[in-house]
Specification:
The chain is of the alpha+beta class. It has five domains: about 120 residues, Beta-Lactamase, CATH 3.30.450; about 100 residues, PAS domain (Beta-Lactamase); about 60 residues; about 140 residues, Heat Shock Protein 90 (2-Layer Sandwich), CATH 3.30.565; about 120 residues, Response regulator (Rossmann fold, 3-Layer(aba) Sandwich), CATH 3.40.50.2300. The chain has 20 helices and 22 strands. It has a five-stranded antiparallel β-sheet. A five-stranded antiparallel β-sheet has the order 7-6-10-9-8, with helices on both faces. A five-stranded mixed β-sheet has the order 12-14-15-17-16, covered by helices on one side. The longest helix has about 45 residues. It is elongated.
Length: about 650
């Protein structure tokens, strides 16, 4: 540890108050400190008590002064002493100095490397022992020798006790550092004994499994975790007691969090002592993994179906052409017209089916944007009510606190409309369809669509999410619920079906609130459509911004050069003229947000989406605010 000069002076002053001589050398046998008693005891010159002096120089000086008696080869003696010192083993010895005085020498290694030696003048003690031997004729020779050995042993024992106390101090410090480290880790680390009782915990169980308690020392795993959670992990605990470690994942029902647990057997020489437990919250990791897996499945499905869809489309085109030609013939019998009409209807239905397959396997991207949930649900009710009709009642309830969340509104709207229409078809006239939006442990957003119909059949509960499964006979494509499942998985969520006085479908999506904030400023709006420009300008002004307008990159470039107070740039990609909104990347260093209505497979769309701050038309005011804030954050990060 590096010390300040004042700290070193205080340390030296403290060591100088000790009556014994002391020297400290580091792991390289370089002098760290010699106290005043050491210098005086051995008459060391000032150049040998300076920090950094080698152990060899000090030993050589003492040997030359006769401290170690007559020496035949001084260099060999110094080398042997240095070699012995490097073993760093504790020792105790007594020897006679050149001046006739007796000293004891106690050496002990330091935990981080190095050596401390304490020298004690025991001349008076030895004289008392000699006097006792001379004058105590009543004492036998055996008692005297035993007394001397006992005194020597006591001195050695005192040295060992000091070493043990230092080791205890170092062990206590190490334990404190280990405990602090485990408490800082974003995981719950614990140990359970053979009775499944906790003997150690870093007090992070509540962080990993909300609703639990951190005071679990002495509790059994069942009492600390609850019966339901314990039932999930108990088989893995039993395997660990058999010496087989494991890593597994499960959903913690009270908090709806996804947990990963690692169990490691604690065995000493084959004797089982218990289990080490490591638990981590991997909810967000799981959501991301599910979304990625679904994206890969879509890519594989697209590769498998694209060729078939192309050939099938050609065959349908031929069938439609031939049947149309037959339909125009005058010499056909009357019953043939019915067959032709049925064939044409089937071919057109096949064409519609191809489009829906393309929607499922095409490059549909998950595009979350800040959406106010109450406004989204209100718009959904406006759209769905006419379709539901007067024969059914549609009720939408929101139990979550109203706020802005990152949601792909288009995907979610398609999914909920599909579910509402399915519920309408499954519910007799006079029935009710309900949609409930709720938050689950600040982790998930659940949207449950329920009806008062007969519910799902056993077969439907098992296969309703499979592509092409339908209970509507020839009228259904079997892709509705499969598309809902696909879009929900893309968002990192899940779909659950069950019956409870009717059919229930629950969409569970990651609950991701957004708090995008943006200071009002002067916005340069670049858009060549007058109607769109007017609409976007109103949205910007409603958020407190002032707006400059341009219809082309040339006009935008002129305004950027002449108006110094522009804070943000919002531009369409496809503009009048040869240049596009992407050219603004090279023109301005201001926060830039690009927007477009081009399809996702368009190269300009893809290039803009890779920049980060991007809006796909149409968009809401919340999405606009979030995109401008993201552009500002991206620009600030680029300048750091």
């Amino acid at each position: 540890m590096n010390r300040t000069p004042s700290q070193r002076k205080m340390l030296e002053a403290g060591l100088n108050l000790i009556q014994q001589a002391m020297s400290i050398f580091d792991s390289n046998l370089r002098l760290v400190l010699i106290n005043r008693q050491m210098q005086q005891m051995f008459s060391l010159p000032s150049e040998l008590v300076q920090t950094g002096v080698s152990f060899d120089k000090v030993i050589r000086f003492l040997a030359e002064r006769g401290e170690y008696g007559e020496i035949d080869d001084l260099d060999e003696f110094v080398a042997n002493r240095a070699k012995l010192a490097r073993t760093f083993e504790a020792h105790y010895m007594e020897r006679k100095r050149a001046n006739g005085r007796m000293i004891s020498v106690e050496g002990a290694p330091l935990p981080e490397g190095g050596w401390v030696t304490v020298y004690t003048d025991i001349t008076e003690i030895k004289q008392q022992e000699a006097l006792l031997r001379t004058r105590s004729e009543a004492l036998s020779e055996q008692v005297l020798v035993r007394s001397e050995e006992l005194a020597k042993t006591n001195r050695a024992l005192a040295s060992s006790n000091a070493a043990l106390e230092e080791a205890k101090h170092q062990l206590t410090q190490m334990e404190a550092r280990t405990r602090l480290t485990t408490q800082m880790m974003p995981a719950h680390i614990a140990h359970i004994d053979l009775d499944q009782r906790y003997t150690f915990s870093n007090r992070r169980l509540q962080d990993v499994m909300p609703g639990s308690t951190d005071e679990i020392i002495g509790l059994t795993a069942r009492d600390a975790l609850g019966p339901a959670t314990h039932a999930v992990i108990e088989p893995h605990i039993e395997r660990a007691f058999d010496g087989v470690g494991s890593v597994f994942e499960f959903t913690h029902d009270p908090s709806s969090r996804r947990i990963r647990v690692a169990l490691t057997p604690d065995s000493v020489n084959g004797d089982m002592q218990g289990i080490y437990v490591l638990s981590m919250d991997i909810t967000e990791e799981t959501q991301t993994r599910v979304a990625l897996q679904q994206t890969r499945r879509r890519e594989m499905a697209a590769q498998l179906t694209s060729g078939l869809a192309h050939d099938f489309s050609n065959l349908l085109t031929i069938i439609l052409g031939m049947q149309g030609k037959l339909e125009r013939m005058d010499s056909l019998p009357s019953e043939a017209k019915h067959l032709i009409a049925a064939t044409l209807a089937a071919a057109r239905r096949g064409g519609g089916l191809l489009h829906r397959i393309a929607d499922m396997t095409g490059p549909r991207e998950f595009r979350p944007a800040p959406i106010r949930l109450s406004a989204f649900l209100s718009e959904l009710q406006t759209m769905a009510s006419p379709t539901v009709g007067n024969d059914h009642r549609l009720q939408i309830n929101q139990t979550t606190p109203d706020g802005t969340f990152n949601i792909d509104a288009d995907m979610l709207q398609d999914s909920l409309l599909n579910l509402i229409l399915n519920a309408r078809d499954a519910t007799p006239p006079g029935g009710q369809i309900s949609l409930i939006a709720r938050a689950v442990q600040d982790t998930w957003l659940e949207l449950e669509v329920a009806d008062t119909g007969t519910g799902f059949t056993e077969q439907a509960l098992k296969k309703a999410l499979h592509p092409f499964f339908t209970t509507k006979g020839g009228e259904g494509s079997g892709l509705g619920l499969a598309m809902v499942y696909d879009m929900t998985k893309l968002a990192g969520g899940d779909v659950r079906l069950f019956n409870d006085n009717g059919a229930h479908v629950v969409l569970r999506l990651p609950l991701r609130p957004t708090g995008a904030t943006l200071a009002p400023g002067l916005v340069l709006l670049v858009e060549d459509s007058e109607d769109l420009r007017m609409s976007i300008r109103d949205m910007l002004m409603a958020q407190g911004h002032l707006v400059l307008e341009a219809t082309s990159i040339h006009e935008a470039e002129a305004l950027l050069a002449s108006v110094p107070d522009i804070a943000y740039v919002l531009s369409d990609i496809h503009l009048s003229g040869a240049r596009t909104g992407l050219d603004l990347v090279q023109i301005t260093q201001l926060p830039l947000t690009l927007m477009t209505s081009l399809p996702v497979n368009d190269p300009l769309h893809q290039a803009a989406a890779q920049r980060g701050a991007f809006l796909h038309k149409p968009f809401s005011e919340d999405a606009l605010r979030a995109a401008l804030a993201k552009a500002e954050q991206t620009q600030d990060a680029a300048h750091e």
